[in-house]
Amino acid sequence: DVKVTQSSRYLVKRTGEKVFLECVQDMDHENMFWYRQDPGLGLRLIYFSYDVKMKEKGDIPEGYSVSREKKERFSLILESASTNQTSMYLCASSLPPENGYTFGSGTRLTVV
Amino acid sequence: AQKITQTQPGMFVQEKEAVTLDCTYDTSDQSYGLFWYKQPSSGEMIFLIYQGSYDEQNATEGRYSLNFQKARKSANLVISASQLGDSAMYFCAMSYYGNNRLAFGKGNQVVVIP
Hints:
heterodimer; A: mainly beta; B: six-stranded mixed sheet
């Protein structure tokens, strides 16, 4: 069964810390995505990557960066965490669209 | 910009009844895909069904069917014979940028009651 694994289910960080959220997929997919989900706002795209070392900004990239050194791993980086980055973060990967995008189980990040 | 609209408030559905979740979208692209996802309280996003913009037949997957009306730009999800396990948030989404991006609606909450 195809899988997208996010390293942490829950995370609590302090304001100003550098935070790494890791995502690994075992499906050899080209495309990987990071979304954040907030109540009443749905899912919003932060960044996506369509190949190793390639990345593109999504709709809300401010305050975030990403890294994709290997095909299977896509990392989201919060350079200096702030309280307004408290959210659920979801990683996804995709190949043929008709198979859907496969999501990880999410990381609930709280910045205090 | 792509826009997905889900406007229904939270819904209560009787077990074994059918429920329709509304979704309208706005795009100038000719080629796009439409998706529905289910998110139970555990948080994972579960892919339910896909409809390509050039598909002439409505997609079906088990108890899920997608009522695709291209001219009206609507892609409603129909869940037949609701089960208690169908209680969840449901998201409509559309792929664009050559299917490299997915835009989501804000979701519909469904609660199935026995």
